[in-house]
Write a structure and sequence with these properties.
Blueprint: H1 3-11, E1 16-21, E2 27-32, E3 38-43, H2 45-49, H3 51-69, H4 75-79
Antiparallel strand pairs: 1-2, 2-3
């Protein structure tokens, strides 16, 4: 297991973590949850070798996972909201 894979495995312990090398020197990070959901993110060489960029990438992954986990309301629920006509202005 590579050092970067160990880092992501420790950060995202609720997921099965795999990494695959990319031709540009980066990696393709794959996180697979117990219920079968898969999340993939490409990380560049610069992101993996710069502490600030790696920290930003980890924060972005956490944000995306949190967004993916929340259930968005169904379209039917949104469409049933009451609608109001926009105001109309008349010149004198």
């Amino acid at each position: 297991m590579s050092l970067i894979q160990e880092k992501f495995t420790s950060l995202f312990s609720n997921f099965d973590v795999t990494t695959a090398p990319r031709p540009d020197g980066g990696i393709l990070l794959t996180l697979r949850s117990n219920d079968g959901r898969t999340f993939k993110r490409a990380l560049t060489y610069q992101q993996m070798h710069n502490a600030d960029q790696l920290s930003w990438a980890i924060s972005a992954i956490r944000r995306d996972l949190a967004e993916q986990a929340s259930e968005l309301p169904q379209i039917g629920m949104l469409q049933s909201q009451q609608r109001f006509a926009l105001p109309t202005y008349h010149s004198l």
